[in-house]
Design brief:
disordered N terminus; binds iron/sulfur cluster
């Protein structure tokens, strides 16, 4: 699995990350990225719960759709985002 986004944006190690978008400073998932790229059911449930209260949820979702990201973004898994996009295009 490609986890480069986790490495770029993980917190707590004082590494400069020029590609991290500014909105991510407000994200509920700061420092917990391992949950968002996991295949474990418990991790996915916990990640989605964090997304429910995240102040940048819509921005995150739009970013993930635009960048065709994998993992949980904006409260949706990769497959759920694909369905979301298809649903929007049929309205
Ligand atoms: S919506 Fe979820 S994945 Fe996106 S920044 Fe917030 S907590 Fe992280």
């Amino acid at each position: 699995m490609n986890v480069h986004i986790v490495d770029l944006w993980s917190e707590g190690d004082q590494v400069f990350r020029p590609n991290k978008p500014a909105w991510h400073d407000l994200a509920e998932c700061r420092g917990l990225h391992h949950l968002f790229f996991s295949d474990r059911r418990d991790d996915i449930i916990e990640a989605k719960q964090l997304c429910q209260y995240c102040p940048v949820r819509q921005t995150c979702l739009d970013y993930a759709i635009a960048g065709d990201e994998h993992g949980i973004w904006g409260g949706l898994t990769t497959m759920e985002r694909q369905r979301y996009v298809l649903g929007r295009s049929h309205k």
